[in-house]
Amino acid sequence: MVDDEEAFADLIASMLDEAGYEVSVTYHVAGALRLIGEREFDVALLDLDLPDGTGAEILRKMKDDGALTEAVMLTGNRDVPAVVEVMKLGASDYLVKPVPLGEIEVAVARARERYRLRTENRALKARLERHEARTGIVTEDPDFLHIIESLAQVAPSDLPVVIQGESGTGKQMLALAIHDASHHKMEPFVVFDCAGVEEEALERELFGYERGVFAGAVERKPGLFEVADRGTLFLDEIESLTLAAQPRLLRVLETGEYSRLGSSRVIRVRTRLVCGSSRDLSALVARGAFNQDLHYRINGVTLKIKPLRERPGDVLPLALHFMRAHALGRSLSPRALEALKAYPWPGNVRELEMVIRRACAFAEGDVIEPRDLPFGSPAL
């Protein structure tokens, strides 16, 4: 609390002390600079006009020092240029004297919550940077962190892995983390989405073909198993494979051998298979919709990723991660962060990234507000 009206400053300090705050009081700029040099405060209540300077000087010093302190300015007049200056410096609020005591307490409570969110953001950034450096995965969810910890055992084993999770939850990122933690990490990591691919096209992609075997086959093409030899092949949406196509995949996994379409030459590969599925394969097997033997063969380890709506603690670190990639100097307001956390994210992480990218592209100012978040837009 910095105000040269000593009785007023002491009254406010007493009120805030009774409300549970720890308050330091000074009546001039010099005292304020000494205090902020000793510690970082959650909130600074700063009188704009002081005997030896201005509250703007104190605010500028805090910002120059990198403090996250939220500043609420007090002023005895409606000097618009001065108010504009302190708001540009980063003040979160200003009150014009005389001001009811209750209004000051409300302003301090709002500022304290903004400070809490900003310090939480800083701590989350530090933690997610540690996770990213290790796996490339951004998460604070205990279950997901447990999966990451298990990679030390899963990745080097060469067991086939099934990653189960809704579309957009990060199955491919986890598959890449498995590859990078294995002894195949210097070999290819190849991705193929089985969804919506016709059976003939699927076989061409997985097993390759010889020149002239069908119209348009103007040259020999290696299959993805061959491309991924000694590396990792990630087959996403494995449940989309037709029942007719599944036995051939099973034979390759059992023997490590196959032939290109139009050729009798046997190709031998040592490819680590990781499969992604948005559905429970065991349930599909029980209904006769997925080959049981193939399920046995690919299901060495099953890792289940929860949808984003079931891990709300990941929304903030993921949003910060995408802001670093796309924000170009912009930031998220506390209200925007709360809106992001409240949204159910039917499109999971993929939707969150697009929301951040779009907000960064269309936001009018440097701070993204809830109005800039295009929830439910058909364009997403």
Question: How do the helices and strands line up, and which of them pair or pack?
Answer:
Blueprint: H1 6-18, H2 29-38, E1 43-47, E2 49-50, E3 53-54, H3 55-64, E4 70-75, H4 80-89, E5 93-96, H5 101-135, H6 142-154, E6 161-164, H7 171-180, E7 189-193, H8 199-207, E8 208-209, E9 221-222, H9 224-227, E10 232-236, H10 246-255, E11 257-258, E12 267-268, E13 272-277, H11 281-286, H12 292-298, E14 301-304, H13 315-326, E15 331-332, H14 334-342, H15 348-362, E16 367-368
Parallel strand pairs: 1-4, 4-5, 6-13, 6-14, 7-10, 10-13, 15-16
Antiparallel strand pairs: 2-3, 8-9, 11-12
Can you walk through the features of this model?
By secondary structure, the chain is of the alpha/beta class. The chain has 3 domains: about 5-110, Response regulator (Rossmann fold), CATH 3.40.50.2300; about 155-305, P-loop containing nucleotide triphosphate hydrolases (Rossmann fold, 3-Layer(aba) Sandwich); about 310-370, Orthogonal Bundle (Helicase, Ruva Protein, domain 3). About 45% of the residues lie in helices and about 15% in strands. The chain has 15 helices and 16 strands. The strands form 6 sheets. It has a 5-stranded parallel sheet. Strand 2 (about 50) and strand 3 form a beta hairpin. Helix 10 (about 245-255) crosses helix 12. The longest helix has about 35 residues, at about 100-135. The radius of gyration is 29 Å and the shape is elongated.
